[in-house]
Amino acid sequence: MTAQGTLATGEPGGALSLAEHAYQVLKDRLIMLDIRPGEPINDGQLAAELGVGRTPVREALKRLETDHLVVSYPRRGTFATVVDITELAAISEIRELLEPLAARRAAENASPSLRREMRTKADEIGSLDQAEPDQIQLMRLDLSVHRLIYRSAGNAHLEDVLIRYDNLATRIWCLVLDRAASVAGHVTEHAELLRAIADGDAEKAGRLALEHVTGFEKTIRAVL
Fold first, then answer.
1. How far apart are CA 217 and CA 73, in angstroms?
2. What's the N-to-C CA distance of the chain in angstroms?
3. What is the pLDDT of residues 187-223, one digit of tens each?
4. Higher per-residue pLDDT: 185 or 132
5. What would you report as the CA-atom Rg of the chain, rounded to the nearest whole angstrom?
6. CATH 1.10.3080.10 for domain 3-80
7. Is the CB of residue 152 less than 8 Å from the CB of residue 101?
8. What's this model's pTM, rounded to 2 decimal places?
9. Is the model's pLDDT at 4 over the cut of 50?
10. What CATH architecture applies to the domain 85-223?
């Protein structure tokens, strides 16, 4: 159902659905740098683009501020947060501790349906066209894999923290995407990780998750 379709139904929870729609669209634009770091955000213009009212957009922006993707200043307005490359070490330090933990917990706790989803996602990655991969689509695939692992860990607090730092790490990557080598290899690593989790091999999953995160930092530093 489209955002406007949801509005037209007048169903209970419609406004919440519109706010969620606005949140998901704007989050993607901010992470993928379609909205550039430091760029001012006009809620009226965004509402018109999304076909919703200003209220859902403002609710979405409040959530995005909590995610550290936008920042609001009194009498100045709301802006996309800057991407600070100097934060790479701090972000990586946290992810190197928590990503392996999430992978191990996912291997231990994932439901049968989530394990099937992981195998399907691993097969999807394995069938990627390596000839001319779309870098942005690969980044979105990378995000979807991480979200699946976090969800499978069964710890909402861990999931919330990791989503926030994965978003920040992805923005850093997108900032240097035109200078970095193809991210295809980085993404295809996930197939083995997903299968390890699906197989319940917590030790292997933790090791592969750590290698993935440290590889990310090395790739970024190579182009700085």
1. 32
2. 43
3. 888 999 999 999 999 999 999 999 999 998 898 888 8
4. 185
5. 18
6. no
7. no
8. 0.85
9. no
10. Up-down Bundle (1.20)
Q: Which residue has the tokens 């926030």?
A: 164
CA atoms of 164 and 168, how far apart (whole Å)? 7
Structure tokens at 34: 């379609």
Asked if pLDDT for residue 6 goes beyond 90, the answer is no
Q: Retrieve residue 150's tokens.
A: 């976090």
Sorted by where each begins, the domain ranges of the chain are 3-80, 85-223
The one-letter amino acid code at 176 reads V
SS3 annotation, the chain: CCHHHHHHHCCCCHHHHHHHHHHHHHHHHHHCCCCCCCCEECHHHHHHHHCCCHHHHHHHHHHHHHCCCEEEECCCEEEECCCCHHHHHHHHHHHHHHHHHHHHHHHHHCCHHHHHHHHHHHHHHHCCCCCCCCHHHHHHHHHHHHHHHHHHCCCHHHHHHHHHHHHHHHHHHHHCCCCCCCCHHHHHHHHHHHHHHHCCCHHHHHHHHHHHHHHHHHHHHHHC
77-80 and 40-41 beta bridge pairing: antiparallel
CA distance 25 to 60: 9
Spatial separation of the C-alpha atoms in residues 143 and 147, rounded to whole Å: 6
What is the spatial distance between Cα 208 and Cα 191, in angstroms, rounded to a whole number?
10
Angle between helices 88-109 and 156-175 (to 10 degrees): 140
